[in-house]
Amino acid sequence: xxxxxxxxxxxxxxxxxxxxxxxxxxxxxxxxxxxxxxxxxxxxxxxxxxxxxxxxxxxxxxxxxxxxxxxxxxxxxxxxxxxxxxxxxxxxxxxxxxxxxxxxxxxxxxxxxxxxxxxxxxxxxxxxxxxxxxxxxxxxxxxxxxxxxxxxxxxxxx
Length: 158
Description:
Helices cover 35% and strands 25% of the residues. The chain contains three helices and seven strands; from the N terminus they run αββααβββββ. The chain has a seven-stranded mixed sheet. Strand 6 (142-148) and strand 7 (151-153) form a beta hairpin. It starts with 8 loop residues before the first helix and ends in a 5-residue tail after the last strand.
């Protein structure tokens, strides 16, 4: 199938302009996907400059579900990375272990693709509980938050 003979030139120019546009859009999308993959490669949020603004503590505490408070840093994390679901999971599952473990280290870690593991440790690298998260669009590969005295905060906010 080709372009029929006698096709008006203005039609051809519009046709080729459309093809060039679609190629540019496709190329841009491929570049965006490639850039996103490279950015996500081994991205641990706690080690980024973006979270240095929360060094030394939080000015505000926000009342959250189940009697939990969150700090400026955790609120920023949840807003920017659209992960209030993570704060929900921590709020819910911390209830099971709060009587035996007052200080909790929560680690969300990408295992492969969109498959994550959320684990809680006691602060001495002893794993207390592991929750599988089969699919998530969380952008980073790993993030740590701490929970103590019903407050969820970033490690650098302590």
